[in-house]
């Protein structure tokens, strides 16, 4: 399914497509996702074409397949929930607001991950080829985190880090404010503290 119009609006109904199928958002401009029931949308594989800017709703969107961003993603104040089995995620250096890694299997990063809000792990998150992760909000891990040789940077203010005994590799604490540990912290590599 290819969407080439300027908007995707869900009012009173929901859209569901399984992880074996792909929705491509392709427009030489902006596609705005919205409507009163957009939060019930379930994508399978989701591709954002290279000429396209997607403006996300201030709601939750579910993705059960691959996230392949070749364009621009504007997260606004919404949440993306990766709720499938094994999934590959390529953010293309575009930030998310909140991200929830749910479902089963392993979510593998194909590029650096930037989260302006909270990051929640309820399944397994793998950094792939040592991809970097930046988080400005809460880190809440109740699943599994495979850090490889990557760096996780907490670059917000007044953040809480709950790691559930899962180690980081390199860990950087930056920006102002207080980073509060929700449980024991384990870093297999370096810990860098920089409040500039």
Keywords summarizing the entry:
25 strands, mainly beta, 8-stranded parallel sheet
Describe the 3D structure.
The chain contains no helices and 25 strands. With about 200 residues, the protein is mainly beta. The strands form four sheets. The chain has an eight-stranded parallel sheet, with no helix packed on it. An eight-stranded parallel sheet has the order 5-8-11-13-16-19-22-24, with no helix packed on it. It starts with a strand and ends with a strand. The model has no long low-confidence stretch (mean pLDDT about 95).
Short summary:
The chain contains no helices and 25 strands.
- Biggest sheet strand line-up: 1-3-6-9-12-14-17-20
Mean pLDDT: 95
Number of DSSP E strands = 25
Q: How would you sum up the major sheet?
A: 8 strands, parallel
Low-confidence stretches: none
Q: Indicate the overall shape.
A: globular
Tally of individual helices: 0
Q: How do the helices and strands follow one another from N- to C-terminus? A: EEEEEEEEEEEEEEEEEEEEEEEEE
**Helix content, binned percent:** under 10%
- Please identify the structural class as seen in this structure: mainly beta
Strand content: 35-45%
Gyration radius, rounded:
17 Å
Distance between the termini: 46 Å
